[in-house]
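2024-03-11 09:14:02 DEBUG pipeline.ingest accepted 1 chain
2024-03-11 09:14:02 DEBUG pipeline.ingest length=384
2024-03-11 09:14:03 DEBUG pipeline.predict start
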Amino acid sequence: MRRFAKMLCGALMGVGLLAIPNLAQSASTEDNIRAIKSVDKDGKNHADAIRAAKELSQAPATTLPTLLKSFQGANPLAVNWLRGVIDTIADHELKKTGKLPAAALEELVKDTAQAPDARRLAYEWLVKVDASASDRLIPGMLHDACPEFRRDAIDRLIAQATKAHEANEKPAEIALLKEALSGASDDDQVKAIVKPLRELGETIDLQKHFGFLTEWHLIGPFDNVGLKGFDTVYPPEKERDLKAKYPGKSGDVEWQPFATDDEYGTFDIAKKTAPHKGAVTYATTTFVADKAREIELRLGTPNAWKLWVNGELIFARDEYHRGTFLDQYKVTARLKPGPNVILLKICQNEQTEEWAQAWTFQMRACDHSGIAVPPATTTTSSTK
């Protein structure tokens, strides 16, 4: 995204839109921000956004906090336009005076009500004029909503743990690594923390740490020959009755409970139900929420899939064998207080190549920053 913003600035410079440092504004800052925030991916209001970016890019550096705060409610394309404007203003001011409104930028960095992207961008410009800001701010960001701030805080703790290891200070090393793990959601950092902890004799539950959903009921196979199953509405999409039997691809099928002990929550459907080709399997579980809230369901699978929460289809992807990895897909789900029924449809096609045999999925529940959201309780036994 930073690269896109720089390219955008270059493009605007190329057509002479940013060439006059003291160009008088013909619209207010607020009007220009609204014009940029109205742009969309289909080109709507593109001309107005160009004009607004031209005018805003001549604004004084004192407008930087206002521009950064405008990230709130902006779509991703508009955020990129705003980034370009902010980078242009800040770069021009640095070259001209060597200064930026550091105090105001720091206040915005610390304001967790602001958009994470805006806070991070403010930080990146702040450290250019105040190198001490990193030591002052990052240690307190271990549980910040901005993943980039958390990464920085975790890296510092890992470095401290390494020094404790070199000094043979085992209790300090364990304490530092456990503290780092409490804020870690990126797999590379989690692995870098868990490996030494396990070598030190500590037991780590990665299923719990990541928030994997590990207990499901599965039913299948249903027919997907000729890829017809993705759009075919089979009985599990119409009702949730875990005691029911339905006609399947090769005879009657019924729900069976399955749990996984894989520490990354992976279910291998081919191993659990037989390696069927041209087939559909459904998986369902219940997530109990202590209150109404919004979460992310993060899914990894190499197969085509559909996902419902409480009977509402919230995402679908008709694509096969593109590979799989942690947090491959991120889907926002709104939960009601109490039990929430999750239904997943996983489709396997008829390809015979060795690399096309994977029929797996993993799913975890987390907040928008990647930190696990634990259920109040879990159950897959109810029939409704």
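2024-03-11 09:14:41 DEBUG pipeline.report Residues 1-7, 9-25, 379-384 have pLDDT under 50 and may be disordered.
2024-03-11 09:14:41 DEBUG pipeline.predict end
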